[in-house]
Amino acid sequence: MAQAVAAPARIKDIVDVEGIRENQLVGYGLVVGLDGTGDSLNNSPFTRQSLQSMLERLGVNTQGENVRTANIAAVMVTASLPPFATQGSRIDVSVASLGNAKSLQGGTLLVTPLLGADGEVFAIAQGPVTINGFKAEGDAASIVSGVPTTGRISSGALVEREIGFALGTQTSLRLALRNPDLTTARRIAMSVNDFIGAPTAVPEDPSTVRLTLPTGFNGNIVDLLTDIEQLIIQTDQSAKIVIDENSGIIVMGKDVRVSSVAVAQSNLTVSIAENPTVVQPAPFSQGQTAVQPSTDLSVDQTDTTLQVINESVTLQELVDGLNALGISPRDLIAILQAIKATGALQAEIEVL
After folding, report:
1. Helix 221-228 crosses helix 182-196 at what angle (to 10 degrees)?
2. Distances 311 to 76, 143, 306, 315 between C-alpha atoms, Å
3. How many CB atoms within 10 Å of residue 65?
4. What is the DSSP string of 288-326?
5. Alpha-carbon distance 136 to 144, whole Å?
6. pLDDT digits 0-9 by tens, 62-83
7. Are both 116 and 79 inside the same structural domain?
């Protein structure tokens, strides 16, 4: 069980600024130079078609030919275009096999256009692929480490098109809270207005604070953002319990409270042990030796008396009261849900 505490934070660490964002890029390409670990062209028709189209653009006609090669693989190429990336700058790209290639080790990505959500080309990727795993095999054994069908090309894409957004010319923009909260949004606005000395920030909703460049401010909106992003804000959060039932993890917010309740919990343990015995036939009976099954089955049920969890004022008091029950985290999940059902738990439960 862990405690999530709302701590003071800088404005730049709890908000996103309108217009300052990444953009996702994707492309389809070919990796060549593989040592027999590429796609099987018979099972990957898209690889065959891509190879033939590429060769035709280079002046080589392979239509109607039975092309057999295992040194090429079709891949998907992805990248994130940083905000304000300029034409000619470089970005990293990730490469993942699309067909049945065994490994991309030693391969080189050929020129691959990277498209944005609007279908326009924003970058061109090419270069040797670096993988994080490997695969080695012999006639009777093989070993695989990591995922050899994915890789990365550091600075492997060249930005060809910029996304236009003139931040410095804006007179008004929005701050988006990463964790929406009415109290936090209001505190941000009050802190900014107190620092600037003018009505500059207005909370519009739990997720948004609007900034307006004040009259007579010595600078543009970039100067304003630079001035306020270091301001310290005491963030707030709603009372919430997050439960991951698969791993048994429970995380509680600091404002979780519980009214006085009584809890009883029963532990049921079922043990099964197999002890087969060998039965020999009687002398001169011409019988056969047989195995007779023998199963030991036991059920142990431990009942606990009602335990009172007193009304908690702090998270530590609630944790101490629950720990006093001496139960496992998985049983605690069921108890918290049952307390919530009674209306004694003043918090939201979110199950992952």
Report:
1. 110
2. 56, 57, 16, 11
3. 10
4. --EEE--EEEEEEEEE---EEEPPPSSHHHHHHHHHTT-
5. 7
6. 776 666 778 899 999 999 999 9
7. yes
Domain interval for residue 92: 23-159
| One domain, residues 50 and 109 | yes
Closest CA to 233 of 278, 183, 293: 183
Q: Which residues pair with 348 in a beta bridge?
A: 240
- pLDDT for the residue numbered 121: 95
179 and 130 in a single domain? The answer is: no
- Rounded to a whole number of angstroms, the distance between the first and last alpha carbons of the chain is 15
Residue 334 has a pLDDT of 80
**CA–CA gap between residue 306 and residue 289 (Å, rounded):** 55
1 belongs to a structural domain: no
Band the pLDDT of 28: cuts 50, 70, 90: very high
Highest mean pLDDT among 14-18, 131-135, 336-340: 14-18
127, 108 in Cβ contact below 8 A? yes
pLDDT band at residue 270 using 50, 70 and 90 as cut-offs: very low
* Strand partners for 346: 257
> pTM for this one?
0.68
| Strand ranges for 33-138 from DSSP E | 72-81, 90-97, 108-115, 121-128, 130-131, 134-137
Residue 195 in contact with residue 228, Cβ under 8 Å?
A: yes
> Where does residue 119 rank: exposed (0-12), middle (13-18), buried (19+ CB within 10 A)?
exposed
Residues 81 and 97 in one domain: yes
- Per-residue pLDDT tens digits for 274-298: 566 776 776 766 667 776 766 565 5
Tens-digit pLDDT profile for residues 188-200: 999 999 999 889 9
> Which residue reads 């949004």 in tokens?
185
CA distance 198 to 254: 34
Claim to verify: residue 344 and residue 249 sit in the same structural domain = yes
